[in-house]
Amino acid sequence: MTAASPFGINEETRARALEVMTSRELDILVVGAGIVGTGTALDAATRGLTVGLLEARDFASGTSGLSSKLVHGGIRYLEQLNFGLVREALAERGLLLQHIAPHLVTPIRFLYPVHHHVWERAYIGAGMMLYDGMSYLGGRLPGVPHHRHLSKRQVMLAAPGLAEHATVGGMTYYDGHVDDARYAATLARTAAHYGAQIATRTFVSELLRDGDRVIGVRARDNMTGDMFEVRAKQVIVAAGVWTSTLQDMIGDPETFEVRMSKGVHILVEKDKFRSLMGLLLRTEKSVLFVIPWGRFWIIGTTDTAWTLDAAHPVATRADIDYILGHVNKVLSTPLTHDDVVGVYAGLRPLLAGDSDETSKLSREHIVSNPAPGVTIVAGGKWTTYRVMAKDAVDAALDNLPLSLAARVPASVTANVALLGADGYSAAVNRRAEWARRTGLGRYQITRLLGRYGSEIEAIVEIIEAQPELATTLPGTKDYREAEVVFAARYEMALRLDDVLMR
Q1: Cα 449 from chain centroid?
Q2: Is residue 86 a part of any domain in this protein?
Q3: Is residue 84 assigned to a domain?
Q4: CA 155 to CA 172: how far, in whole Å?
Q5: For residue 339, is it within any domain?
Q6: H-helix or E-strand spanning residue 329
Q7: C-alpha closest to that of 42 among 487, 405, 454, 389
Q8: Residue 385 maps to which CATH number?
């Protein structure tokens, strides 16, 4: 029996969404479709509000798709005594791992090599014990195992690529692993499933006003060049590193300042470093991760101020030298520039503080109402996007007419699973069936389950209809042509680079 097609957003639904958004006043219009913007659209839509979402480029095309691919509490923030942020992030980590998106967020194990027998093991061990303990404070199980102490022999067996002199033992702990760009696209699809009207490739050029009140936006359809207007009772700005541009439109740039911090990551092939798990390394200012990512290791990140074009952050040779220099301190075979097969740079939108060093700036978020009719949410961490979205919608509701706001329920997104999550465990148990129907091996089926969850059946049916689409894309060993069809048909991939981001 053929399964029902998954819920899709595409060029057709985009056209209908623009028609709806331009023909009526919305309750909420969200500007920006990164992780916070798509989360805000879902939060508002699941409260029964009429919602629109506009994005100048693609889902997670900025900061949200260029992260370290981690859902984590931020163990280094314990050293900064930022216990509230860590507790909140750990609670969200547990939600994402176990309920909201178990197909997209999975446990990942890290090794921390210890260099000093007594004080360092005691100091880091106490921090990890606190980290484990705080993961229970959200009212649910953490979803990952506790930390463990390892002898030097155990460390070298687990990570034979480490240099003998680099460790006297170690500790392992767990956090969450995420495909950030896929998560944001799935979050957007889920928001649309609950009624949000979504259109990417739409650039907001102006705010509409009635006196000093913001009543909507004027925007350009980047696919056609046409200008259009969308009116809403409340506009929520979730623009990340472009927040200051919207603040200038509002005419109140002094409410708070968002500073851009550049984070660079490099990719090397898996065989360049032998280890069964990732690494967490201390640096003079922060930490460095070595993160397993399919056939590669992602190594990063840097944390330096960026004052140039927000749309085009670039990695310099100095950035790459910094990463290689720190990771090579613990490797038996040092990595070279020739080993680097990929580099990406993203920008963090951090709230400006007293320090000139971006590594010391707050990862907490702020929500403000700088003018009637508009709410801005800024700062924060990828992991806590759901809390940021909830706070933004709550703040917007405070500025809606009481007759409407009083009828709007509280946020329910803690109980809303993303598309592909429902039935995921059952889909995993059908791996042999998916392999038989597609001719793909166990590794490839497991990989597809981690990208599509229970919606893997749509990929399987695409391949059954056109078996040649099981072929890998040129230049890759893992990505199938059927996934391009899925991206265009169900995920609003309008251009080739949209497909690549998925």
Answers
A1: 18
A2: no
A3: no
A4: 9
A5: yes
A6: none
A7: 389
A8: 3.50.50.60
| Residue 362: predicted pLDDT | 52
- Per-residue pLDDT tens over the stretch 89-142: 999 999 999 999 999 999 999 999 999 989 999 999 999 999 999 999 877 789
Based on the fold, state whether residues 267 and 344 are members of the same structural domain: yes
- 406 and 445 in a common domain: no
Kindly give, in sequence order, each residue whose CB lies less than 8 Å from that of residue 49, ignoring residues fewer than 6 positions away: 27, 28, 393, 408
Domains held by the chain: number = 4
Count the Cβ atoms, other than its own, within 10 Å of residue 77. 20
Range of the domain at 268: 260-351
Kindly report the backbone phi and psi dihedral angles of residue 140, in degrees, each rounded to the nearest multiple of 5, phi listed first: -145, 165
Residues 317 and 199 in one domain: no
Characterize the bridge pairing of strands 51-54 and 148-151: unpaired
268 and 337 in one domain? yes
pLDDT attached to residue 501: 87
- Overall residue count recorded for the chain in this entry: 502
275 lies in the same domain as 313: yes
Q: Over the stretch 377-417, which tens digit does the pLDDT of each residue have?
A: 999 999 999 999 999 999 999 998 888 889 999 999 999 99
- Rounded to a whole number of angstroms, the CA Rg of the chain reads 23
pTM of the model: 0.95
Q: Distance between CA 363 and CA 82 in Å, rounded?
A: 9
Residues 58, 189, single domain; the answer is: yes
Domain end (from 296, 327, 351): 351
Model pLDDT for residues 23-77, shown as the tens digit of each residue: 999 999 999 999 999 999 999 999 999 999 999 999 999 999 999 999 999 998 8
Query: What is the pLDDT at residue 1?
Result: 41
Share of the chain above pLDDT 90, in %: 89
Domain boundary among 177, 195, 221: 177
Tell me: do 232 and 281 sit in the same domain: no
Q: 207-211, 358-362, 436-440 — which is least confidently predicted?
A: 358-362
Does residue 333 lie within any of the structural domains? yes
Residues 472, 476, 478, CA angle at the centre, nearest 5°?
Answer: 60
Residue 185's nearest CA partner among 200, 172, 195, 175 is 200
User: What are the beta bridge partners of residue 263?
Assistant: 346
Show the DSSP H helices in 194-271 as ranges. Answer: 243-250
- For residue 88 the two structure tokens come to 């909140």
Are residue 144 and residue 108 in the same domain, yes or no?
A: yes
- CATH code, domain carrying 295: 3.30.9.10
Q: What is the per-residue pLDDT across 272-289, written as a single tens digit (0 to 9) for each?
A: 999 999 999 999 888 999
Q: What kind and span of H or E run contains 59?
A: none
